[in-house]
C-alpha cells in the first residue's frame, strides 16, 4: 500500500512547542517554498522533498494525522501560519539589559569605577561587574544629603572623581605617610596667651589679604605632604616678612628632590619634608613649576637662586633658597588658634574616608555609616576658624569649625576650601598640627 510506503521517513525526533512541531534542530530549508509554488492540495504522496535521511511532505495530508511528516516550512509557506517556536537566540544576538540600555553578548561597559561585561550561558545573558568600591558612590552621596539636618554638610558628585576607585583616591589624592611617626618627632612649643582673648572667628585671608596663597590642585599624585608643606611655608614667609619675602614656594622641588626616604607621588613624611627645607631650602614655583609627576630632581642640592637659574626674587637682599627653622608641633585647639592668629596658617594631617571626597559644603564631620577599611592620611592647610550659629546641634551651642584649604582645585568643596568640626579632633585633624618659622632676610 502506497500509504505505508510514503509514510514517515523522518528519523529526527521532532519535539513540539505549543502543539506545533519544533524544527529548530533541522536544516533551515526552504523545502516546499523551493519546489511547490502552490503546494499540493489533498493527498499527493509524490509531493515530497528529501530532508536529512528521509523525506518530508508539502501536501495537505501531511497535516491530517501525523503532522510530524510535513516539511518545516509547510505551515508558514503553504498555510501562511507562522509556527510558534521560540528559537534560542544565537549567541551574537543574545543581549543584556542593564541600567536602561541593551548590550550585546561580549560587550564591555563601565559602571562608575567598575568594568562590566555582558556574558551568558544558554538563553540568559547578564552583566557581570568588577566589585571595586568606587571613590564616589551615589548611595553615599544620597545618604549624606538625606540626613543633612543632622549631619550639617552636603555632598555632591564630582566628575573628576567619578569612575575612579576608592583605592585610587586614597593612593593618588592624599599622600601623607604615618603622621604619628612623623609629627611626634617634632617638639611642641609653649606659648603664653589667654585663651579667652582669642577671637570667635578668624580668616587669615582677611587679616593678610595679599600674603595667603591660593588653593591649588595636586592632581592624581599622592603628594599632599609636599603640596601642603610648600603652601604653609609660602604663607609664613609672606606673613612673617610683612610682605617683603612674598613668594609661592615650589612643591615640585620637594616632590622631585626630597627623595630620600620619601615616595614622591606615593606619599611622604612631613618631618622629612620640613628637614629638607630647613637644610637645603626651596626655590619658588616659577623656577620649578608643579607637574605632579615623579621626575628626576633638576637642581643641585647646594645651590642658590642664581645658580639654580631662578628669576631674581622680590626681595633684593635674598640670594639663598627659602629655608625654615625646625618644625614644631601644636598640642591643642587653642594653641593652634593662637599660632594661626599670630604667625599664619598651619599644616594639619587628617584621616580621610570615602565620604570626604564628596564634600560639597557645610561643616564636615565623618559619617560613620560610610566607614570602610580604606582610608588614608592627607595634609592640609588650616587658615582660620569660626562658629556657625545656624546649626545648633551640639546641645544648643553653635558649631565650631576650622577653615581649611585643600589641594583639589577650586572646583571642590567651598571654592577649594572646607570647614570641619573644631575642638573634637574630628578625623584626627587636631592630632598632627605643625608650624614652622620662616627664615626671612
Ligand atoms: C506563541 O505562544 C505564546 C504562548 O503560548 C502566545 O502567547 C503567543 O501569542 C504565540 N504567538 C504566536 C505568534 O502565535
Ligand atoms: C556623576 O558625574 C559623572 C560625570 O559628570 C556622571 O557621568 C555620573 O552619571 C554622575 N553620577 C551621578 C550618580 O549623578
Ligand atoms: C592647651 O595647651 C596649653 C599649653 O600648651 C594649655 O595652657 C591650655 O590650657 C590647653 N588648652 C586646652 C583647652 O586644653
UniProtKB/TrEMBL annotation:
Residues 36-84 form the SMB domain. Residues 1-19 form the signal peptide. Keywords: Disulfide bond, Signal. This is SMB domain-containing protein. Pfam families: Peptidase_C1. Belongs to the peptidase C1 family. GO terms for biological process: proteolysis. The keyword Magnesium does not apply. InterPro entries: Papain-like_cys_pep_sf, Pept_asp_AS, Pept_his_AS, Peptidase_C1A, Peptidase_C1A_C, Somatomedin_B_dom. GO terms for molecular function: cysteine-type peptidase activity.
Amino acid at each position: 500500500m502506497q500509504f505505508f510506503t510514503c509514510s514517515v521517513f523522518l528519523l529526527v525526533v521532532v519535539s513540539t512547542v505549543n502543539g506545533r512541531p519544533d524544527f529548530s534542530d533541522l536544516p533551515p530549508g526552504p523545502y516546499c517554498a523551493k519546489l511547490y509554488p502552490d503546494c499540493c492540495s489533498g493527498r499527493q504522496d509524490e509531493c515530497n522533498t528529501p530532508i536529512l535521511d528521509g523525506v518530508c511532505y508539502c501536501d495537505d495530508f501531511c497535516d491530517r494525522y501525523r503532522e510530524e511528516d510535513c516539511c518545516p516550512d509547510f505551515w508558514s509557506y503553504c498555510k501562511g501560519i507562522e509556527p510558534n517556536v521560540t528559537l534560542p537566540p544565537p549567541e551574537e544576538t543574545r543581549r543584556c539589559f542593564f541600567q536602561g540600555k541593551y548590550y550585546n553578548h561580549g560587550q564591555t561597559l563601565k559602571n562608575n569605577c567598575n568594568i562590566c561585561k555582558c556574558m551568558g550561558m544558554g538563553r540568559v545573558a547578564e552583566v557581570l561587574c568588577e566589585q571595586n568600591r568606587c571613590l564616589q558612590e551615589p548611595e553615599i552621596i544620597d545618604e549624606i544629603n538625606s540626613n543633612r539636618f543632622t549631619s550639617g554638610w552636603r555632598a555632591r558628585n564630582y566628575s573628576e572623581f567619578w569612575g575612579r576607585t576608592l583605592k585610587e583616591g586614597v593612593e593618588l589624592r592624599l599622600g601623607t605617610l604615618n603622621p604619628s611617626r612623623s609629627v611626634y618627632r617634632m617638639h611642641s612649643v609653649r606659648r603664653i596667651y589667654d585663651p579667652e582673648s582669642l577671637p570667635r572667628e578668624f580668616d587669615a585671608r582677611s587679616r593678610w589679604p595679599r600674603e595667603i596663597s591660593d588653593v591649588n590642585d595636586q592632581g592624581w599624585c599622592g603628594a599632599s605632604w609636599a603640596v601642603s608643606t610648600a603652601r604653609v611655608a609660602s604663607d609664613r614667609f609672606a606673613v612673617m616678612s610683612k610682605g617683603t619675602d612674598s613668594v609661592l614656594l615650589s612643591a615640585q622641588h620637594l616632590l622631585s628632590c626630597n627623595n630620600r626616604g620619601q615616595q614622591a607621588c606615593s606619599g611622604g613624611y612631613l618631618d622629612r619634608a620640613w628637614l629638607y627645607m630647613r637644610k637645603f631650602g626651596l626655590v619658588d614655583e616659577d623656577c620649578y613649576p608643579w607637574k605632579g609627576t615623579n621626575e628626576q630632581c633638576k637642581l643641585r642640592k647646594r645651590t642658590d637662586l642664581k645658580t639654580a637659574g631662578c628669576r631674581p626674587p622680590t626681595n633684593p637682599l635674598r640670594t639663598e633658597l627659602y629655608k625654615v627653622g625646625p618644625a614644631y608641633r601644636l598640642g591643642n585647639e587653642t594653641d593652634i588658634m593662637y599660632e594661626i592668629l599670630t604667625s599664619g596658617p598651619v599644616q594639619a594631617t587628617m584621616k580621610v574616608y570615602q565620604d570626604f571626597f564628596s564634600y560639597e559644603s557645610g561643616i564636615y564631620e565623618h559619617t560613620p555609616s560610610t566607614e570602610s577599611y580604606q582610608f588614608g592620611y592627607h595634609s592640609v592647610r588650616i587658615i582660620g576658624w569660626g562658629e556657625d550659629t545656624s546649626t545648633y546641634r551640639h546641645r544648643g551651642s553653635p558649631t565650631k569649625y576650622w577653615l581649611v584649604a585643600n589641594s583639589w582645585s577650586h572646583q571642590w568643596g567651598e571654592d577649594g576650601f572646607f570647614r570641619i568640626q573644631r575642638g573634637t579632633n574630628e578625623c584626627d585633624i587636631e592630632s598632627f598640627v605643625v608650624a614652622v618659622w620662616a627664615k626671612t632676610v
